[in-house]
Amino acid sequence: MSTITYPFRLDALGETPKAREEVRRYFWELMIQQHTPLINQLNLLVAQHPSFPDWQSNNAVNADDLKRLWRSLEKQPQFEGMPERAFVSTRLVTNNTYESWLALQAKRQEDLNKLLHSVEVLKTDGELIAISGCDLDVIRNRAKEALSEVNAQISKESKKKKSKKAIEGGIYKILYAKHRTTEDLLEKCAVAYLIKNRFEIKSDETEKDIKKLSDRIHSKKKEIEILQKQLQSCLPKGRPWVGKDILDEVASIGVIEDETEWNSIESALLKKQTFMPHPILFESSDDFIWAEPARFQIEDLQAEEENSRDTEIEELKAKNLQAEKESSNTEPRKRVCVCFKFKSFDEKYAFEVAGDYRHIHAVWQALREHKKYDGNTDENTSAVFLVRSATLIWREYKKNENEKRK
Q1: 295 occurs within a structural domain
Q2: 227-267 confidence digits (pLDDT tens)
Q3: Residue 294 CB contacts under 8 Å (≥ 6 apart), including other chains
Q4: What range does the domain containing 260 cover?
Q5: Beta strands 288-291; 9-12: pairing state
């Protein structure tokens, strides 16, 4: 089943700017002080597990072992009081991280094997003659036969018309497989001759041809070195709290008397402030509540904005709402809010769904489904909801970002 992702901006709900700031601060502190550090520790524990080499071979982390590692961190003082759903998210994020990383490593290993085989195949005419024990004309004749066999196989297998690139890819695939499996040295060398010359039967090799082949092999060896380093040294990395790193760097600098030098160092350090915490994953539609603003005792948006426009974000929201009213003759859009089930279902930590109105139909449907489900939980199920999971992500605010999209 395919998955559709709907991106939306969430505006914290509250009757005052201070109340809205409290909502944002709660989630920010939760994500940087507990959620992200726990994920970083769990990533490290997975990489240090004795069975990790086996997991790499199987391209999957054992779910039971991951749960045991995850539970071992639960009672650490740093993570006490962490909401259960945020705690569950740390395991989901870690599992997804390693799932992606193992798939990437498997792809790298596959690419490495192909490159190693390719380097093994590429030989000069002189080397092919020495390996096969036959002269070049015999190799060429066998290469012609092999190419005819491959073309016949391609024609038989391909019922639909394919592009030239797709056909060539199919030929290479067959030739490499044939080279890998055959034990006949003459056929092996004939196939290598075809691969080297890109399926052409050429005249005698020149010094220029040998130089080109050498460069081709050298290029592939460089790719091999890069892949080998990536396979040996790369492990999933957490998201370090950059602020701590900067404080450590400042402490190591010592006394700086020159103001110009300090300004230069400060500028360089601030450029490193690129940290964003790991997202919180909600795996079930039961993890959040859809509702209208009245449920959260929030006044009408227009009245609320007239009373408090002291930040750029609030002003931009008011501007967008006014533009929407002026450009539409239809009735104003219905406001939809979402509350994540944290803090013992404390509904003061709620958000209004805003941002990309091209997908607002999904939010309206989520609201209708939630109302229907609440009306009769015995006959309805949340398993068929349109919105069945969510990812809470922080993004750096950019001034005039919404205006540029118009």
Answers
A1: no
A2: 999 888 777 776 665 445 545 555 555 555 566 666 666 56
A3: none
A4: 248-275
A5: unpaired
